[in-house]
Here is the input.
Amino acid sequence: MEKRTHKNNGAANGRKSPSGKTAAGPVVNIRDYMPKRDFSSVWVHFFAIIVLTIAIYSNGMNGVFVGDDISFIKENIAIRSLANIPDFFLSPKSLAAGDTEWGTTIYRPLRTVSFAVDYALFGLQPYGYHAVSLALHLIAAVSFYFVVLGLFNIAGVAFLSALLFAAHPVHIEAVTWIASRADLIGMVLFNVTFLAYMRYKDVRRKGWLAASLALSFLSYMGKETMVFLPGIIILYDYATRNRRPVSDTIKANIVSWVLFTIVCAAYLFIRMSITGRMSQNQGWWGGTAYSNFLMMAEATATYIRLMVVPYGFTFHYIIDPVYSVLAPKVVVSLVVILASIVLIIYSHFRNRLVFFSLVWFYLGLVPIANIIPISFSMMAERYIYVASAGPIIAAGYGLYRLYRYATERSLGLQRLAVGGIVVLVLIFSVQVIIRNDDYKDEFAFYSSAVAVSPDSPPSNKGLADQYYNKKDYAKAIEYYEKAIAADPVYVEALLGEAVAYRETGELAKALAAARKAALVEEKVPSLKPRNPLIKFNLGNIYKEMGDLEAARAEWEAAVELNPEYPEALNHLGIYWQMKEDNAKALSMFERSLKANRYNAETHYNAALIYEALGNREKAGVHFKSFMGLAGPEYAYEVGELKKKGY
Here is the structure.
């Protein structure tokens, strides 16, 4: 990156003269007197960042697929062919397993593209996915280094900031949990977007602006929370305006600002057109907008605490509903937020780049501030992967200033400062290494979450699922009931309990739990749209009880709620197949495949009927599709079909 020249002299911006006296003017804006860059240390910095990052995250490489990894990777048949990549941008149904709602509510096509590439390279071996996530975190840290270097033009500030970013324990979830890949992709593209824009401001070539705009669109495709990027661009232009009047800054940059806003709006329009929604259908936390925002105050204060004093990490944070601004937790949270705002105001008058860095954090919170309520969790560590970069820049600058101050005083103070920085990085590193073990398998993942948040409904439900997978149905039911006790309207836990009772043969209890889930939806319709999974599971229970007609009625009810519900349509096809009505069975199977053509079982069922009807050509088409999509659990069927010449 080339050296910048500036017309403003240092004294006009309050920098110290060689004598040590401060010249007139209160604002210190380092960009106004950037020294010549010394690149001799950059490679050393890169080496240190890379070695540290690999060292502290290496024990997370052996982890298995956990949590949402199952829906987005392990059970998502769509990623098993690179030919499906266009669908990732055009059809949200291909973004997750067909039996989940995530594919219709979470639109992050670049993440799914990366999973498809991973599958082509590693199959379903988790270590490869972990390695790619770690590589992306490294790229994010290195590109972040250049962002900070572009801001301050001081390699030491860039190094300390990138080092803190690479090692800060608040980033463990985003790096070690594969499903959080979108945050990594978004951050990388966010950084290169910003770098391209800074280059444009240096050389004033429109090609760099065009590149920045295109990269910004890709960053949104990485993760939707990058939509605060236009705000960062505006803030950057304001913070680096030197002593120009605000009106002149607006006139000089308004075109760029409008273009970034248009690109962002275009992305939101495309997202809305494809998914049909902006949110995941979560009602207000606490039941009202007022309570929602009071709870968000506590979430914001918790984010600040995690940044400053990182401890007590968990998969699911519990924020109890509050309805008064005078509630003790709200008061404490507002005090913390007010203190941070005072610091921001102070930095505005002392150092505009520190001001820029601190405001970055609050701009990054806007997309996750539950203005449009986020489903599943009000807050999560991965949500602030990009937002955290702002205060980390401020911390990196503060540590650099501390080091410079100590160096100017004595060798002993210099060593003390270096030792303090090393100890801080070591503390962060040990936390990362320890918590990586929480992701080694799903049982450890949810056990650690329950240990930190014993009243967390999703954590208890997740642990119950693990006991269910271990066929320890008694323990599974115990933890499902803990989840339900903490959240009586937790439909997914009620359904899990119903399925567990079904496995134990206690069909009456299974039916009661499933009916309770249906009743909850009727009484609390504001939770989210009616869930066809309830009707689907009711149908499965009735089938187990031998009441096929009741099962059919429930499956049809599920299809009525969601006419493109592939699993329910497949079950209806099986029902009509059992009734020897091949025409209706084929109709159901074809509708199921139209909704999700990646369902191997449905292809197999359709092929069996065509084969029975003597239509070997169509049977062959479906058998071949089945063989291409079938996982290892269908190895026997695939072998038999190969023997038949398919």
About this structure: Residues 182-278 form one domain.
